[in-house]
Predict the structure of Deoxyribose-phosphate aldolase.
Amino acid sequence: MSGTSTIPDPGLADATRSEAALRRFLHGLPGVDQVGAEARAAGLGTRSIKTSAKEFALDLAIRMVDLTTLEGQDTPGKVRALASKAMRPDPADPTCPAAAAVCVYPDMVATVKETLGSSGVKVAAVATAFPSGRAALDIKLADTRDAVEAGADEIDMVIDRGAFLAGHYQQVFDEIVAVKQACARADGEDAHLKVIFETGELQTYDNVRRASWLAMMAGADFIKTSTGKVQPAATLPVTLIMLEAVRDFREQTGTMVGVKPAGGIRTAKDAIKYLVMVNEVAGPDWLDPDWFRFGASTLLNDLLMQRTKMTTGRYSGPDYFTLD
């Protein structure tokens, strides 16, 4: 294969040496029991947590949010306001934690970077002909390099779903490897790479599992469900399968990879369901913004309303916080 990635497990390294070997490996993964996966996800979604745990969960979920705007009408003023909100989600409460990152198009990276300054909130940029992924590789790489040079800490790339569904696994693998290389910086502080599958277009849970392993073997730092532009976006069963994949990948290689569900997660109740699933499926090591994120815009407002309710005993109302 033209691409290479550093895989500590010799068996996995062998699986990436040729198109045929990669196909054998991916199609040799255990099939997903659709009924079982959906039943387990539904069961985990009914778990309740105690009040003290809920307070912790709300703050953790806020710290995991990639506050996102990916619209053609985005302006410098809009993304500056979003960056300010990410740093101080509740200006009236200094104990409220900051969000994890602000996610924007590459042309807005410099504006967000300047606004965030040394706050510690990351800048994430979508790249590689987001959201379709339908562009020549040199264009995808230029898109990535532009975002990294502008100061992006994280790159959210999309895979070519058409190539994946056609069984061109080598092409998808090589593109991920190439984008990973384009995330490099001279100072060694490389941008982290999140690989988006657009699970709503992958058709089967087996394909979600295969895409997860393919991306991790190619060097993904995170695997991400969706662009938020296609429905269905993030779902509990899909995220369950991806969490199983990162858990199994670490068991086999010793390497941790993060997970980011994105699109359609709008309420604190939903976020807590995901956190319960992370803990039960992957384990508590993933209950950290370094290893789990929510791609969202409206979720943060509901988290803030629920947090205020627990602090003051009353809802602040949706108009209390800025709308995104």
Remarks:
- The chain has one domain: 10-312.
- Residues 236-253 form the longest helix (18 residues).
- Strands lie at 65-68, 101-104, 122-127, 154-158, 192-196, 222-224, 258-260, 294-296.
